[in-house]
Amino acid sequence: MQKRRSPPWGAIEAFIVASRRATSFKDAASQLALSPAAFSRRIQMLEEHVGVKLFNRVGQTPTLTAAGVRYLQRLEPSYEAMRAATEWMAPDAERRALRLGMSQSFAVSWLVPRLPDFYKKCQGIELVIQTCADNVELAGGAADLRILYGHGDWPNFTSQKLFDLEAFVVSPPVLLDGTPAPKSIEDLQDVPLLELIHPRNQWSEWLSQAGYTAPLREPRYFDSAQVMYEAASQGLGVALGVFPLVDSFLQSGRLQIAFESSQPLSGAYHLAALPEVRRHPAVQILWHWLINDPSCIVFSELKNLAS
Q1: Which of 2, 46, 150, 271 fits a 20 to 30 Å CA distance from 216?
Q2: What's the CATH number where 247 sits?
Q3: In the chain, how many domains are there?
Q4: Beta bridge partners of 270
Q5: 0.70 cut: is pTM over it?
Q6: In angstroms, what CA-CA distances link 189 with 177, 182, 212, 300?
Q7: Residues near 90 by Cβ (< 8 Å), separated by ≥ 6?
Q8: Residues 242 and 99 in one domain
């Protein structure tokens, strides 16, 4: 059986660049210092190689087909792995800033308060914080280290659990329509529920863990925990609180723990990096600092904020 040849690297690179917010093939071509005709030939070559159409070419801005979206999801992590490995082989890699990726909510609530300790203990390491709301985009981005929510099973990455999560219901004292804060799980029938797009279905998981099976309202969705908690604090509904994302809202009194019922979530926060990046000395220092941070607040300490 004849082996199928891999597509040319130039064609793969053209596909990745065109998929990442390029306004046109002409714009993508300029990013690679190619003529539009040469760039289009690379895309055509790749489409012929995989045997499917990857882009819709209607109008000025190319859009991915359904097959193109699936191909990008599978291809991008490997592309980033090769790019990162090449960067770390460069002679000046020792002096390059480390890029640490995470959600914006996690950066604001957990990392930023700890940065003074990092700058004190890890002098000489320059750190760039990269934030993204989407876990998939974060895993496929250009960060050297990532803090991801999930089960630690991301392809191509080595990972280590940072901490587990427990969730509890948080609410303002009174909702916008005058409804009082829920005092029991049964009271959730009467209030709007707020939930994150990712990780999705946390309310269903939490209710199942609590043994509650009665149907509730369809949640109102948000792509940012900080925005969701802000909406809850203004009386738009109740949300599931998790440390560290809700910590500042509880400490300020803008939200309160509605009632004593915390349930573990199946996912956890993990540190993740490509194996070849993980072995770099500066990355090991940052990894060790993140894993051994002594100032993590456990859920039992947060319960005191409800009183």
Answers
A1: 150
A2: 3.40.190.10
A3: 3
A4: 148, 161
A5: no
A6: 15, 9, 11, 27
A7: 96
A8: no
pLDDT in tens, 126-171: 889 988 766 555 565 678 889 988 888 887 788 999 888 899 999 9
Would you call 174 exposed, middle or buried from its count of C-beta atoms within 10 A (0-12, 13-18, 19+)? exposed
Q: What confidence tens digit (pLDDT) does each residue in 29-54 have?
A: 888 888 888 888 999 989 988 889 99
Q: Render pLDDT for 213-252 as a digit per residue (tens, 0 to 9).
A: 877 888 999 988 999 999 999 999 999 999 888 999 999 9
Range of the domain at 252: 165-264
Please say whether the beta carbons of 167 and 224 come within 8 A: no
Q: In 3-state terms, what secondary structure has residue 174? A: strand
Angle at 244 between CA 240 and CA 246, to 5 degrees: 45
Residue 20 Cα distances to 23, 69, 137, 262, angstroms: 9, 11, 11, 40
Contacts of 197 (CB under 8 A, 6+ apart): 221, 222, 223
Assigned token pair, 137 = 């985009």
**173 in the same domain as 238:** yes
Q: Is the pLDDT of residue 94 over 80?
A: no
Query: What is the distance between the terminal CA atoms of the chain, rounded to a whole angstrom?
Result: 71
